[in-house]
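Hi again,

Forgot to attach this to my earlier email, sorry! This is the prediction with carboxymethyldethia coenzyme *A bound. I've pasted everything inline since the attachment limit keeps bouncing my files.
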Amino acid sequence: MSGLLTDIDHVGIAVEDLDAAVAHYQRTLGLDPVHREVVPDQGVEEVLFHVGSSFVQLLGALGSDTPVGKFLAKHGPGLHHIGYRVSDVAEALERLKANGVPLIDEVPRDGPRGTTIAFVHPKGFDGVLVELVQGNEAT
Ligand code: CMX
Ligand code: CO
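Structure tokens for the complex follow:
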């Protein structure tokens, strides 16, 4: 059986203060942001850093009643989700569904930067929130 995942697209990290976190990553890790965007759909402002063929995604909450806002209130800052790169999100969702994995998005949706994404419930992968990402090859 062939594998669904082609790469780690990004590691999503919830932070309380986005500007402070960006400055910290720049100073301590020498990473410069390659992208910053408010994504009202997801209730986040996100900053991407390029690392190899993947990204680190820092996530600030746009409000307390958003996924990241609720996560911060409950757990504090930390690892929020893993974004796996796939060649076809719809096909990946079908396979997960056929295997009884609980989905958050039943159908693919448009993500930032022209990507197609879908979230899979953390219950399906031992407490790890998974995002499937199509069309975001870092070069
Ligand atoms: N990782 C692991 N577990 C998580 C989690 C996360 N990121 N967020 C919430 N949970 C857990 C909670 O700890 C809680 O567990 P228990 O039932 O054991 O207490 C359970 O999920 C329910 O938590 P909740 O606070 O009531 O949150 P909701 O059920 O309302 O929502 C989730 C949880 C995952 C369905 C929701 O956050 C979601 O739909 N996420 C997908 C969208 C998203 O995260 N967008 C932001 C990122 C955008 C981007 O990457 O660009
Ligand atoms: Co993400």
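The longest helix spans residues 18-29. Residues 10, 12, 57, 81, 83, 131 surround cobalt (II) ion (ligand 2) (CB under 6 Å).

That should be everything now.

G.
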